[in-house]
């Protein structure tokens, strides 16, 4: 237990929530009672299987991070993978919660809450570790396209002598006279 006290608070919350979410995934998330008989379905039905498997994957991954060797994962950091797994756990738990909506039982609410707390703690842990989160690209946040190279200025034409300039200027044309307005047609008599 002394080893657990040495872990960061965020990691303790992530591990605790993941273990509890795994346990609560076996409780009835949907439950119907009638005539002295109770029937229920846990999270491990339908899309909830993915949520349960992702919780197991997150626990294994965090165990490898704690006790395994340093890993080189290309451009991905270990903290970023932890955040990705936590986000996927939250996503699939939310989908399970929404699709298992008939006769929802209290463990479904506890599971959803645990998934949210787990994700928030994983994000806080990643920020504390200095993990750079990729920024989503939108049209507003995208960098502007590179500017086109400016054309080289053309050399100025040689200056003309004032007499030659006066001779080469065309005379302005007179304004055309406006056309006379046409008289209005008489209105047709009303019947």
User: Helix fraction?
Assistant: 40-55%
The name CATH uses for the topology of the domain at 2-31 and 41-128 is Four Helix Bundle (Hemerythrin (Met), subunit A)
| Strand elements, count | 2
Poorly predicted runs: none
Q: Tell me the CATH architecture of the domain at 2-31 and 41-128.
A: Up-down Bundle
User: Over all CA atoms, what is the radius of gyration?
Assistant: 37 Å
The mean pLDDT is 81
Q: Decide which structural class fits the backbone.
A: mainly alpha
Strand content: 5-15%
Q: Class of the domain at 2-31 and 41-128, according to the CATH hierarchy?
A: Mainly Alpha
The rough form would be described as elongated
Largest sheet: 2 strands, antiparallel
């Amino acid at each position: 237990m002394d080893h657990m006290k040495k872990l960061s608070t965020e990691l303790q919350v992530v591990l605790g929530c993941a273990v509890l979410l795994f346990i609560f995934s076996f409780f009835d998330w949907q439950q119907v009672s009638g005539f002295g008989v109770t029937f229920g379905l846990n999270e491990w039905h339908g899309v909830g299987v993915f949520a349960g498997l992702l919780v197991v994957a997150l626990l294994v991954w965090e165990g490898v991070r704690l006790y395994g060797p340093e890993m080189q994962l290309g451009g991905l950091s270990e903290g970023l993978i932890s955040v990705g797994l936590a986000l996927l756990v939250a996503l699939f738990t939310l989908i399970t919660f929404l699709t298992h909506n008939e006769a929802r039982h209290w463990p479904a609410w506890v599971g959803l809450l645990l998934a949210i707390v787990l994700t928030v703690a994983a994000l806080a842990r990643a920020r504390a570790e200095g993990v750079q989160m990729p920024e989503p690209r939108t049209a507003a946040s995208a960098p502007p396209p590179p500017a086109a190279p400016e054309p080289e200025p053309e050399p100025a034409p040689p200056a003309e002598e004032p007499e030659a300039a006066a001779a080469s200027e065309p005379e302005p044309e007179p304004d055309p006279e406006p056309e006379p307005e046409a008289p209005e047609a008489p209105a047709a008599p009303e019947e």
